[in-house]
């Protein structure tokens, strides 16, 4: 170890020996110090400015990427249109410096794609958080083909289950939290042995399956007698323009021109125009992002009751409930209105019977869930079907004037979520009834969005991230996304 030691053989300076002169203190020019301090401060300011511009450019990049995906546009539109437009507008309305700053936003195709992926992941994360918080959820499922005509996934129930089960496993979602699944009647989804529902019930036997109400309504509405079906096939939606169509057919010497001279045929056409308007109104009323099984069943129940009313009117040879036919009958001398009413009555009876067969439980007048739709209705507790303790809680809730005012200003679902802290059990029962989807409307919206995103010119695109942003109404948490990213200065 000695070889690593440095020995000092010098004697200590006791002041008698010559010592080295002390170094002279350097004299600093105060003005020089001040200049250096100002230069340093200026450099710090420039660094802060660069970091600020870069951070703003990154936030702007995410904002542009979000809009591109939300509007279902190609990713290249950011570089070829959006940024050039922003630069040009800034040059005209502001100055060149602002336009130059905008050019620091990196809008390359791959960059936009990565930002869209970040945003989609954030939205999915929020959905998973909400599911874990409430520990209850519902599904709606349907299948579609892409622009190339190929299904988006393997169509067997087992493969569909594997895709969903993998997502749940990665997100920490339990099948025990699933209340219901809404779909059409496709075998891949509802098959008893190998359908998706069979696989789901192996995980959770209590999951309820719901046949899409809009799909059932469409199936029931297809049935009609031979005369009406023939009329429909020959001329749908032509009644309002029947005179122009008639003249055109006469000029073309078409054999179909004689149909518009047949009073019975025109009456049937007028009735079809009316009844399909009513069916379309029903269909539209059941569409929407926030519809549930309870509300859709109530709409269908109301429509069946209207059918009964229309049937009674027609049985008295009155067509006043069908405005198009009624107007035509008033303006024309119809000799055989009775025959027309017989035809209409036959159709209404068949339509009613078909709807009842597809919705057997709707007309049972089960009042035990009325309190969920409106807990402030008088005597709502008399048929609630709740335990004594929960009935007392419901009475207490129904007597709260402040909650009644709140109920008038929010949706039913929002109301029950907001009172969960005070009335937890009532809220959970209500939400378990309101949560199940009544239709696959959101699937149809997604299919429409997919057809706009994945066109024949973009048929190699993986649509998942763009589709999530396009159809979701969840606002991305941009601050959280940006906190994980390091802004880079664009040169």
UniProtKB/TrEMBL annotation:
Annotated signal sequence range: none
Q: HAT C-terminal dimerisation domain spans which residues?
A: 408-466
Alphabetically, the GO molecular function entries are: protein dimerization activity
Extract the Pfam families matched here: Dimer_Tnp_hAT
Q: Which domain of life is it from?
A: Eukaryota
Q: Which residue ranges does the record annotate as region Disordered?
A: 1-31
> What's the protein here called?
HAT C-terminal dimerisation domain-containing protein
